[in-house]
Design brief:
This protein is an alpha/beta fold and about 500 residues long. About 30% of the residues lie in helices and about 25% in strands. The chain has 14 helices and 19 strands. The longest helix is centred in the middle third of the chain and has 22 residues. The radius of gyration is 25 Å and the shape is elongated. Its EC number is 1.1.1.3.
């Protein structure tokens, strides 16, 4: 894994929730910079020399991540001046609520405002840093900043995933226009958008240019990994585990984006664009969350010699086809991903030249996320060009143009709940035969309640569509209780 040059200088905080938000307040007010506390050391400010220009940045979002960025920039300003040849100065900070107290000191000379247009339209600002979250308002801010010729650094995976084709189109137009200008086109950097502090974006953009990525497998949502770890190791129920995640701030008040798998799907879409050169509508990627998992599933997983993780997976299933899913999946205990515990993130990249490479670390929180933003800010201030932030589209300079396919093959774990009666095993066997599903094994704990029992079928390698058809039909049987749960089995020639 590539280590950031700043990582050793940071005391990484415990995994904290990403809470930066933004909303306009009216009438617009602008506050002067508050008085610095007496303990603040001005000796850490970047030295002003004849060789030192100024890079002016504006930050949109004064929450968890925005505060972390300001704290790091302030405490290490001399280093950043040395690295970039210019003093990095936070000129403006746009926040949702001017009256809210904050746990960081606003830099000297920084104007705090509740109007993001003050940041976007300031002619002195070189780079806009967007860390407010959301999609619509954030999209408007990022697009307006780029059109105004400003470089953009963002941590907003939802916005990038939702508007990726539009971003690519705009950046292409700006690059074309810059050919007749003395000023280079603006850049877009988004290292913090996927897996917070793990440098997976820069690795995917720069370390596989002579390689061919075959598969990406990621644990890329810290909230759900924390919950599943507790369900596995502590024997907690889903509700108990969710409460624990909420108490620690890992889960939002409305945890749907996390537990439904949608947060992971947005990140996977971005990684697929970098790895395979394709832009896929998020709705086309099969997405199942963890809400239907029970303690029984972890008991059965243990019987099989593994555990359950929420995985985001994309694989080249042929030279011209890419398949993907977000879903709970069975993972054997000997797999590196089985050991990723708590709120930690991990991404395994399998490629033709390098084989398997795994990146792991903190996927969210103030300082991990801010650290990635800082790296992008420094690269931008240093003048590093990034003319193709999403890599070349599939088929450009490569005869293997890839296309997305929604169906894929895997071994599957299928858990059925039922009211006990004769002939159930025979019915399931007949339905599996009808839909072309080979049964690999059948697992069942001792029955405690014949009116509400469960058993598990594991299958041979088969198409997802066949399993879905089997589930639809088995749920129509009079002995079936509720919805039937199924998930892929990772490895062992699966997927």
């Amino acid at each position: 894994m590539k280590l950031s040059i700043f990582t050793s200088a940071l005391t990484l905080a415990l995994f904290a929730p990403f809470t930066a938000g933004f909303g306009l307040q009216h009438p617009r007010k602008v506050l002067p910079n508050p008085t610095r506390p007496t303990h603040y050391s001005t000796s850490l400010r970047a030295p002003k020399t004849s060789l030192s220009a100024t890079t002016s940045i504006g930050i949109i979002g004064g929450g968890t991540v925005g505060g972390g960025i300001i704290s790091i920039l302030t405490s290490r300003s001399s280093l950043f001046t040395t690295l970039t040849g210019s003093e990095i100065k936070v000129s403006r900070l746009a926040v949702r609520d001017l009256s809210k107290s904050r746990d960081f000191t606003t830099p000297q000379g920084c104007v705090v405002t509740d109007d993001l247009n003050d940041v976007i339209n300031d002619p002195e600002i070189d780079t806009v840093v967007e860390v407010m979250g959301g999609t619509t308002l954030a999209k408007d801010a990022v697009f307006a900043a780029l059109k105004n010729g400003k470089n953009v650094v963002t941590a907003n995976k939802a916005m990038i995933a939702a508007y990726l084709p539009d971003l690519e189109s705009l950046l292409s137009e700006l690059a074309e226009s810059a050919k007749t200008s003395t000023k280079p086109p603006p850049t877009l950097r988004y290292e913090a958008a996927v897996c917070g502090g793990i440098p997976i974006i820069s690795s995917m953009k720069g370390d596989y240019v002579g390689d061919e990525v075959e598969m990406i497998t990621g644990i890329i949502n810290g909230c759900t990994n924390y919950m599943l770890t507790n369900m596995d190791k502590e024997g907690l129920s889903y509700d108990e585990s969710l409460k624990g995640a909420s108490d620690l701030g890992y889960a939002e008040a409305d945890p749907t984006l996390d537990v439904g798998g949608f947060d992971a799907r947005s990140k996977l879409k971005i990684l697929m664009r970098l790895a395979f050169g394709i832009s896929v509508p998020e709705s086309s990627i099969s997405c199942e969350g963890i809400t239907e998992l029970t303690k029984e599933d972890f008991e059965y997983a243990a019987m099989l010699g593994g555990t359950v993780k929420l995985l985001a997976v994309a694989k080249r299933v042929s030279d011209t086809k890419i398949a993907a899913f977000v879903s709970p999946a069975y993972v054997g205990n000997d797999d590196v991903l089985a050991s990723i515990a708590g709120a930690t993130n991990a991404v395994e990249v399998v490629s033709k030249n390098l084989g398997s490479t795994t990146y792991s670390g903190q996927g969210a929180g103030r300082y991990p996320t801010a650290n990635s933003c800082i790296n992008d800010i420094v690269r931008t201030a240093r003048g590093d060009r990034d003319t193709m932030p999403f890599n070349a589209p599939a088929g450009v300079g490569d005869e293997k143009e890839a296309a997305f396919v929604e169906d894929f093959k895997s071994k599957f774990y299928i858990r059925l709940r039922y009211k006990d009666q004769n002939g159930i095993t025979k019915d399931c066997g007949s339905l599996c035969e009808k839909h072309g599903i080979g049964i690999y094994s059948i697992l069942q704990n001792p029955i405690k309640n014949r009116n509400d029992a469960a058993f598990v079928i594991t299958t041979d390698r088969v198409e997802l569509s066949r399993v879905e058809a089997f589930v639809r039909e088995v749920e129509g049987k009079e002995w079936t209780l509720g919805e039937t749960f199924f998930m892929p089995i990772l490895r062992d020639e699966a997927f």
